[in-house]
Structure formats: C-alpha cells, structure tokens
Design a protein that fits this description.
The protein has 221 residues and is α/β, with parallel strands linked by helices. The chain contains 10 helices and 6 strands, in the order E-H-E-H-E-H-E-H-E-H-E-H-H-H-H-H. Helix 4 links the parallel strand 4 and strand 5. The radius of gyration is 18 Å and the shape is globular. It starts with 7 loop residues before the first strand and ends in a 5-residue tail after the last helix.
Length: 221
C-alpha cells in the first residue's frame, strides 16, 4: 500500500464466494489503498460492522435471508457514514429504484471493467454518486415519472442560487433537512423552502428524479 494515500475501508457483501473473493483479489492486484473485508450474507456483514468500521460497502442485491436492499437500509440506519455501492448483475428498474430509496450512493453492474469499478468506489467514498451508463439509461427510461421526462427541461433554463446549490449537494449526500439546517446555520423551514424550489425549478416530483436530473446536467459539485 502507498503510505501517501488514505486507506479506504471496504467490505464486499456477496453470497457467491467466487464473486466476492474475485473482486477482493482484483483490488489487491492494483495500486489501490484499501483494507478489504468480505461477507457472504447481510447478517454476516452486520456482524462485521459491530467490530469494524467501513467507508464503503459493495453490496449484491439477490442474497438469501436478507436482500441487498434490506441490508442497505440497515447500514444507512445504523452506520450512516458508510456509503453503499450496489454491485450486481440486475439492471431491473425496480431494483435500482429500491436501492436508491434505501440509501445507496451508486449502482453498477458486475460486467464493468476494473478501471470503472475503481472510479465508482473512489467517487462514492468522496461523497459523490456513481451510476454506470447502462444504469443511467434504465433510470431515465423507467424510474422518472413519465409525465415529466428530464429531456423536456433544457438545462440552460435552470438557474440555482448559491444556497440552492449548497442544499442540492447536501441532499445528494443523503443529509436530512435537520442535518442541512445545522450545517448551514439556517432553520429547517428555510431548508424546506429551498428544497421545494429545487423540485419546482427542475420540474421533478420525486427525490430520485431530482438526483437523476442533477447528475444528468452536472449540477452536483
């Protein structure tokens, strides 16, 4: 490991031994400063969280006993500082929507190359969101409300104030209204007002739609 780099604490949760051990081996073979742990189920992962802290969890979706969606929900409830990145073979729009709503910061498929996997991990660990190109296409086709497709709104018509930009970025980082208010030293009512304005300006009706719009038009910094 390179001592000049911050070490990323990472856990891979996948019920297929070949898959989780293969990803672990790939990460060990590159110049990537990470402490990698593995778990074969959601229950085992939560047990590891009791003794270790993790910056990011790579979570498969289809697992026995506890799905990746349920695990993501539990991780974000008990360990909100841990970022979750879905790593799966499923590109079904229902899975994608449910993972985002559960608190996942990204969604990638197992057929991606190592370079994109590393980029996804680093982006999410730094507080950003990452969706592979195939997943963004599914989101745009299925997850957004049909009456309000994002293509109907031209990005040049959207102007966000400095405060709205701040709040949008914090929403994307999964901050609650209360957390945003404390961080920016403003009232929760003010946060809610700006939040409503963001939905109005972007013409989105759901949080998923707002985040997708922000990603599509590069409004997140």
């Amino acid at each position: 490991m390179n001592g000049d780099k911050a070490v990323i604490r990472l856990i891979i949760v996948d019920d297929h031994p070949l898959s989780r051990e293969g990803i672990k081996a790939l990460l060990a073979d590159v110049d990537f400063s990470a402490e990698v742990r593995v778990a074969g189920s959601g229950r085992e992962a939560l047990e590891r969280f009791q003794t270790d802290t993790f910056d990011i969890a790579l979570v498969d979706i289809n697992m026995p006993e506890m799905s990746g969606i349920e695990l993501t929900r539990e991780i974000k409830r008990m360990y909100p500082d841990t970022r979750v990145l879905a790593l799966t073979m499923y590109d079904d729009h229902m899975f994608i929507s449910q993972m985002i709503e559960a608190g996942a910061s990204g969604y990638i498929l197992k057929n991606i190359n190592l370079e994109e996997l590393l980029e996804a991990i680093q982006t999410v660990v730094k507080g950003g969101s990452y969706y592979s190109a195939d997943i963004l296409k599914v989101i745009s086709e299925h997850v957004l409300p049909v009456p309000d497709p994002i293509v109907a709104v031209k990005p040049k018509t959207i102007h966000l104030s400095f405060r709205e930009q701040e709040i949008l970025n914090l929403i994307a980082k999964e901050f609650t209204n209360q957390q945003i208010a404390r961080k920016l030293f403003i009232s929760e009512r003010t946060v809610e007002t700006h939040r409503k304005n963001l939905f109005i300006k972007t013409k989105q009706k759901t949080l998923v739609g707002l985040i997708k719009y922000a990603i599509e038009y590069k409004l997140l910094h």
